[in-house]
Specification:
The complex is a heterodimer of chains A (about 675) and B (about 210). Chain A has about 675 residues and is mostly helical. Chain A folds into three domains: about 240 residues, no CATH class; about 270 residues, no CATH class; about 50 residues. Helix content of chain A is about 70%, strand content about 5%. Chain A is built from 23 helices and five strands. In chain A, α8 runs antiparallel to α10. Chain A is globular and about 100 Å long. With about 210 residues, chain B is mainly alpha-helical. Chain B has one domain. In chain B, about 75% of the residues lie in helices and about 0% in strands. Chain B is built from seven helices and no strands. In chain B, α1 runs parallel beside α5, α2 packs antiparallel against α3 and α6 packs antiparallel against α7. The chains are: A mainly alpha (about 675), B mainly alpha (about 210). Chains A and B meet through α23 of A and α4 and α5 of B.
């Protein structure tokens, strides 16, 4: 065993704390469920998760952000080793894990405090929450293929039990099964990926795998893209996301969306290490990643626009953002292939920067959606409305998250997508008309995505928080104390600081570039200049943004002070003399999206049902816009039905006759004997 | 001594074939007892080297268990359950016999091709052992009654035992004895299982298990 650095020790202590917490909650879970056991679990679980996350975050920063440390422990298995490593790339991906792990643990503790023991065993819930944290942490730090896959399995299995929290609901059960199947199909591809690498390098250690250039690199790359892409939710492997995220409790959705999806991106970037020298990688890999990323982003955001369920909307938006990140990684690869430091450095930086930002605002938005669900009992926007007045702090936090994700300056979402678009704008100088056109197409895709994203979040915030309550669910809400929203301030602060202090946040991303395996030394030197000029641009943006924010704040305070002095009273908005406004004449989620569905209907897969009235006297009319997942309905459902039919056909072998089973054994034995002799 | 050894082996082969033809459970049990006695006799007729105390001890144990113990126990189960005496072979009598003869032909074919130490197996021992194994499996596959399947399992074990005889070296007797103990436990558990099957399904016809599928 060798270890060095206090940072690694603190980090290992955090891992140990997660394991001990999981053990304790596991013991509590085994006891008969009662109010007392649930209360105990709801204390031990969040406390150990929060403490482990704080300790882990301290470990990330204590040894210096740019340092690289490793730790190897023999573990008694015939192969593989317990090899962990902390480099800036791992640190960057661990930051959302610990930050959201902490926030979601506290938020979960609050939202589950009155849980009915006859329905839920909180011991089991927190056990799997801690295992998920442990799995994610080990995935980001594993330096051995076997340890990586073991951690990957823990990380993939735990959400199944977390999503299935409300397991009496048939839809929740279906969602968790869809998740499980998707997660394991991805894992199968990854097992094949690592098995091939193991076979060729003769070792399971990442360092040994990276030393040897494998054959069939394209097959390996495609396996990695599909395997990690299934976790990241790349189209068309995204189908589990819109099912699983709405079904899971909100603090789990926030952690899954803000931290676990990143594991797919991390794996993809880490896997670049195993494909041999960067200069020899085929050029079309980068273009493929860009194309997949752009299609995923466009599909995701258009589907999000069509949703009326707030959490499903957020889930599709996660698909979109993962698409943007993969597009960034693709730009980076293209830059490496063409030897353009600008494209390579900004592509990867944009991808990683956006990853950090996405974790912050998506965590915040999911937690806000959870509070809406808790207060009103629904996240269906057709039943909501007018919540801003009833829950002003929650509304403000949601508005902040929405503004960030819709790339409005000066918040963090803008900074991330600005770097991404900058990488594409400068890439227009790449040689060759086809490269220019492709880059322009991607830039257009990014702009379109950002524009539609603004519409999506205008809809999400407008339908949920503005206007008048559409149903009694939005009127008779559970009173929400502001102090219960305290955990949400962590991601909210990240959204604001990530924008106002964008150059500093961007600096955190830079050391990772040296550890992105394909960023070779020839590109790193000119990349420094690129980074410096981007930092200057971000500084200007932050200064302008900060000044604008300050001015608005001063204006608001001045207005309030002036109005308070003149004795102005608040009253309803003057409706131009119109007296009979009702919630029914408001925009609904369906009517909001109807104009867009006329243009993008085919891409969005929307079905519009309009019931119009004829005659002089109006009858009830309706407009219904639905957006079932086309990939799931048209591709996966028939595929799995086919597989089910094939499996049922095989039941002719499973006929229930013991004699026949023994006959199979006899036939196999004889066949093996003959085969062995021959 | 060698010709006597060959004779015993031939007798084993004949019992195998009669078992395939036989349609009565009691007959099967009796023939398995005969096979147990023949196995004990084989142990007392060592082809290579002289007879030693370990072989005599093992022969006594084999005779006590396979020649007397199991058959008496199975007969007891048979009487206790009051089941009908016929095994009701699901494939008739002709097919198992043909399959058994095919097994014999396959074993003879295999003997010439299997890479084995020269003179390890005395003549005929390998094909007869393999045929016994096949006959046991055919009995298991072809019989509807669970009790007949237990007898088939015993015959399979006998085949494996015959294969092991030339491989016995010094000290391996304890190994063989432990296998014997294993078989003893298996037969015991099977008999208990049959008892439960009989009370659950009112029959020991294994086709009823079909209901348990899925």
């Amino acid at each position: 065993m060798f270890t060095h650095g206090e940072c690694m020790e603190t980090f290992l202590l955090a891992l140990l704390l997660m394991a001990v917490g999981a053990l304790l909650t596991g013991v509590v879970a085994l006891r008969p469920v009662s109010v007392a056991t649930n209360r105990t679990a709801n204390f031990i679980g969040p406390a150990s998760a929060a403490a482990a996350c704080l300790l882990g975050a301290y470990g990330l920063f204590s040894g210096g952000w740019s340092s690289a440390e490793s730790f190897i422990l023999p573990w008694g298995l015939p192969f593989g080793s317990f090899a962990l490593g902390l480099d800036p790339l791992s640190r960057l991906f661990l930051l959302p894990v610990f930050a959201l792990g902490f926030t979601c643990a506290l938020s979960g503790c609050i939202s589950l405090r009155h849980c009915d023991p006859s329905e839920h065993n909180l011991g089991a819930h927190w056990l799997f929450y801690l295992l998920l944290l442990l799995g994610m942490t080990c995935v980001m730090t594993a330096r051995d293929a076997l340890l990586f896959m073991l951690s990957w399995e823990i990380m993939s299995l735990s959400p199944f039990f977390l999503i299935d929290f409300n397991d009496r609901d048939r839809l929740v059960q279906d969602a968790s099964w869809v998740y499980l199947v998707a997660a394991h199909l991805g894992a199968v591809l990854l097992i094949a990926f690592f098995a091939l690498l193991w076979q060729q390098s003769g070792s399971t250690l990442f360092s040994a795998m990276a030393m040897k250039s494998p054959s069939h690199v394209t097959a390996l790359f495609l396996l990695a893209l599909l395997g990690f892409g299934a976790k990241a939710g790349l189209a068309p492997l995204h189908v589990w996301l819109p099912e699983a995220h709405p079904a899971a409790p909100s603090h789990v959705s926030a952690l899954l969306s803000g931290a676990m999806l990143n594991a797919g991106l991390y794996g993809l970037i880490r896997s670049f290490d195993f494909f041999g020298p960067a200069q020899l990688l085929p050029g079309w890999w980068g273009w493929l990643l860009m194309a997949v990323g752009m299609l995923t982003a466009l599909m995701g955001i258009l589907k999000a626009l069509a949703q009326s369920n707030l959490k499903r909307l957020l889930a599709y938006s996660s698909v979109e953002n993962m698409g943007l990140m993969v597009m960034g990684a693709g730009i980076g690869l293209v830059g490496i292939h063409t030897g353009s430091a600008w494209t390579a450095a900004l592509g990867f930086s944009g991808c990683l920067f956006h990853m950090l930002n996405h974790s912050a605002f998506k965590g915040l938005l999911f937690l806000c959606a959870g509070e809406v669900l808790h207060a009103t009992g629904t996240v269906n926007m057709t039943a909501l409305g007018g919540l801003q007045r009833r829950m002003p702090l929650l509304g403000a936090l949601f508005a902040l998250g929405a503004a960030s994700i819709a790339c409005l300056p000066p918040f963090n979402g803008f900074a991330g997508e600005f770097v991404l678009s900058l990488s594409m704008i400068r890439s227009l100088e790449l040689p060759g008309m086809e490269q220019k056109i492709a880059m322009l197409a991607c830039l257009t895709g990014l702009m379109l995505t950002s524009g539609v994203s603004a519409a999506v979040y205008a809809k999400a915030y407008g339908m949920t928080f503005l206007g008048q309550p559409r149903t009694s669910a939005a009127v008779d809400i559970h009173a929400l104390e502001n102090r219960l929203l305290l955990p949400l301030l962590v991601p909210a602060a990240a959204c604001v600081c990530g924008g106002l202090f964008a150059p500093w946040a961007f600096k955190m991303v830079q050391p990772t570039l040296e550890f992105i395996p394909v960023m070779h030394a020839g590109l790193m030197a000119p990349a420094g200049h690129v980074i410096a000029s981007t930092e200057r641009l971000l500084t200007h943006i932050s200064l302008f943004g900060g000044a604008a924010l300050l001015l608005v704040l001063i204006a608001v305070l001045a207005r309030r002070a002036l109005l308070a002095r003149s004795g102005v009273k608040r009253g309803p908005v003057w409706g131009c003399g119109y007296q009979y406004g009702t919630p029914r004449i408001q925009y609904t989620p369906a009517s909001f999206v109807e104009p867009a569905s006329r243009i993008f209907g085919h891409v969005m897969g929307t079905t519009v049902k309009v019931t119009k009235t004829d005659g002089l006297f109006p009858d009830p009319a309706s407009l219904d816009v639905d957006a079932p997942d086309v990939v799931r309905g048209k591709f996966y459902a028939p595929l799995f039905q086919l597989m089910e039919r094939a499996c049922n056909a095989l039941k002719i072998l499973q006929n229930g006759l013991v004699n026949m089973y023994i006959l199979y054994i006899l036939i196999t034995l004889v066949a093996l004997l003959i085969w062995g002799i021959a | 001594m060698s010709s006597l050894f060959q004779f015993v082996i031939l007798l084993l082969l004949i019992t195998d074939l009669i078992m395939l033809w036989s349609g009565r459970i009691l007959m099967l049990i009796r023939l398995s007892a005969v096979q147990g006695a023949l196995l004990a006799a084989l142990l007392l007729l060592p082809v290579n080297g002289a007879l030693d105390a370990e072989h005599v001890f093992l022969a006594a144990a084999v005779f006590a268990l396979k020649g007397v113990g199991f058959p008496v126990f199975l007969r007891h189960v048979c009487h206790k359950l009051g089941i009908e005496p016929m095994v009701r072979p699901r494939l008739g009598r002709m097919y198992p016999m043909v399959a058994g003869l095919a097994g014999l032909a396959f074993s003879l074919w295999l003997e010439g091709r299997i890479p084995a130490v020269v003179d390890l197996f005395p003549p005929l021992l390998f094909p007869v052992a393999l045929t016994t194994l096949f006959c046991g499996l055919i009995l298991v596959v072809g019989c509807a009654k669970a009790l007949a399947q237990v007898t088939g399992y015993l015959v399979v074990e006998n085949g494996i035992f015959i294969l092991g005889i030339p491989l016995m070296t010094e000290g391996s007797v304890w190994f063989e004895l432990s296998i014997l103990l294993d078989v003893f436990a298996a037969i015991f558990v099977m008999a208990i299982a049959i008892n439960h099957i009989n009370s659950a399904f009112d029959s020991i016809d294994v086709a009823r298990f079909r209901n348990l599928r899925d």
